[in-house]
Design brief:
The chain is an alpha/beta fold. It is built from eight helices and seven strands. The model has no long low-confidence stretch (mean pLDDT 95).
């Protein structure tokens, strides 16, 4: 299938590692030009050098704290300067801290809101003008928790669900401009964040990581963790012209783990 991504310009937030980086690599492989970002400029430079030869597209970077609106504006302006208009926005953010309701005060709630929901709103606000003339794709990464809340991740559960409400509403508002808006929720994809959460939960339960992993994998019908590349392929399809009629949807890449409709 020709995804028709050659020459398209994509901006991916929080893309120096994990799922964001995996998506960047897959888009590059399909010929898109990609702007990656994160807080650490030196890390971004190294990642850019590592992935530059992986695909057909071009890649550049610009450091950005996505909780700072002025830095988001500067990133979008730099992306336009380097590549021209933005055709594809991939919203991504690191997850907020784990914990239960009693663990968090107002400051923690505000920080989680700014990281996982408000940053998405701000990025969309900045790039939509680029897309109104010729259409575009907005894909927001969330979590399987938007369908089935995950114990001990209340901050993520709340604000990731907000991302779905935002995207579903925008899918209707932006449809006249051929801007397709979707959400992709990862399940247990083997990233550094999953490893950290797995180790923390195993310690809390007083079991070995091996025993905890065995219990986790029993909840996944496919019987294994997902690979970031598998997740990235779904996002890349949604970002492409091969997807011309799917909007307002939330897709889970979870190996069948979530068992609710």
């Amino acid at each position: 299938m020709d995804l028709q991504l050659a020459g398209k310009h994509a901006l991916i937030s929080a893309s120096s590692q994990g799922l964001g980086r995996a998506v960047a690599e897959e888009l590059l492989n399909e010929g898109a030009n990609v702007m990656i970002t994160g807080r650490d400029a030196e890390k971004l430079r190294k990642v850019t050098e590592e992935i530059r030869l992986l695909g057909k597209g071009n890649v550049d970077y610009h450091a950005c704290d996505i909780t700072n609106y002025e830095e988001i504006k500067a990133l979008v302006a730099y992306s336009r300067k380097v590549f021209g208009k933005i055709d594809i926005l991939i919203n991504n953010a690191g997850g907020p801290p784990a914990g239960t309701f009693a663990d968090f005060d107002d400051e923690a709630w505000q920080s989680a809101f700014e990281l996982t929901l408000l940053s998405y709103i701000r990025f969309i606000r900045e790039v939509v003008p680029d897309m109104k003339e010729n259409g575009g794709r907005i894909i927001s990464l969330a979590s399987s928790s938007v369908k089935q809340p995950i114990p001990g991740l209340i901050l993520s559960n709340v604000f990731r669900t907000g991302v779905v409400g935002l995207s579903k509403t925008l899918a209707t508002e932006l449809a006249p401009y051929n801007i397709l808006v979707n959400v992709v929720g990862p399940g247990l994809i083997l990233t550094d964040r999953l490893e950290h959460i797995r180790e923390s939960n195993a310690q809390k339960k007083g079991v070995s990581i091996e025993d905890f992993e065995k219990e986790q994998l029993e909840s996944i019908p496919l019987g294994r963790y997902g690979d970031p590349k598998e997740f990235a392929k779904v996002v890349t399809f949604l970002a492409s012209d091969a997807n011309s009629y799917l909007t307002g949807s939330t897709l889970l890449v979870d190996g069948g783990m979530v068992n609710v409709v």
